[in-house]
Design a protein that fits this description.
With 256 residues, this protein is of the alpha/beta class. The protein has one domain: Vaccinia Virus protein VP39 (Rossmann fold), CATH 3.40.50. The chain contains 9 helices and 11 strands. The strands form 3 sheets. Strands 4-3-2-5-6-11-8 form a 7-stranded mixed sheet, sandwiched between helices. It has a two-stranded antiparallel sheet with strand order 1-7. Strands 9-10 form a two-stranded antiparallel ribbon. Strand 3 (80-85), helix 4 (88-98) and strand 4 form a beta-alpha-beta unit. 34% of the residues are buried.
Length: 256
């Protein structure tokens, strides 16, 4: 559903998410398998944050950190890094396997001291929030004066939507809100932020993940065929980097 006043797109009604359980029994296997690619993406985002904000380190809150690979890269680069994750299994993995500081809970319910972070990141998380506006407001309170917000999220204004319609890969059950550059800008501006960087986002991923997504979202036989070819050649774990043209990244500064 698209709001006739502001243009924001929301899933209405929301779909049930198969197997989603905040108590969770385990992390998603494909996300664990993609750890090298996730770390590569995180290092690129870290470089972007450094270029745009001038920050080399500081206190970071990564909202929706899942198993912690993005958070880990910032910690290893010298940041005092804290993760926030509602699901038990990935939060436990990040704490136990990676030695990260992760707080269990949703952003709408979390409690942190005011002005206690220099950077808050939503890395493919804001589209999952029950109330994105409230999530941004809470994080603004937690940011120090002049602190920065990083958001990476699907871009609803993309060439694939017209071609694929309901088969667009970002139409998954737990994506509740779909932003484009204008609606993201409006959301942040109304909550006291000024965008200082907005661009498309490229991503690194494995050939195995490519085959999986082709089969899952578009054509199952093609996905199986690609998986067989990549497996036969022994290149399934090989990393490729592409701009899928349906992701955007924004960096904004908190204004007084």
């Amino acid at each position: 559903m698209r709001c006739a006043e502001c243009g924001l797109v929301r899933a209405d009604p929301r779909a049930e998410v198969p197997g989603f359980d905040r108590a969770g029994e385990g992390c998603a296997g494909d996300k664990i398998a993609e750890a090298p690619q996730t770390r590569l993406n995180a290092r690129e985002r870290l470089g972007l944050v450094r270029r745009v904000t001038g920050l080399e380190s500081g206190r970071l809150l990564d909202v929706g950190c899942y198993a912690g690979f993005f958070l880990e890269v910032f910690r290893d680069a010298g940041w005092d890094a804290v993760g926030l994750e509602p699901q038990a299994a990935p939060a436990d993995y990040a704490t136990r396997e990676l030695g990260l500081h992760v707080v269990r809970g949703a952003v709408e319910d979390a409690r942190f001291d005011p002005a206690s972070f220099d950077l808050v990141t939503f890395n493919h998380c804001l589209e999952h929030a029950d109330d994105p506006a409230l999530a941004i407001e809470r994080c603004r309170d937690w940011l120090a004066p002049g602190g920065h917000l990083f958001v990476e999220t699907p871009d609803f204004r993309n060439p694939w939507l017209g071609l694929l319609g309901s088969r667009w890969r970002q139409f998954i059950a737990d994506h509740y809100t779909f932003f484009d550059p204008d609606t993201l800008h409006d959301l942040l501006l109304r909550r006291g932020f000024r965008i200082v960087h907005l661009s498309r986002a490229a991503k690194a991923f494995s050939l195995n993940l490519l085959a999986d997504r082709v089969g899952r979202y578009y054509f199952k036989p093609a996905g199986r065929a690609l998986s067989a070819v990549f497996g036969g050649l022994g290149v399934g774990s090989k990393t490729i980097r592409l701009d899928p043209r349906d992701l955007m990244v924004a960096v904004a500064v908190k204004e007084e």
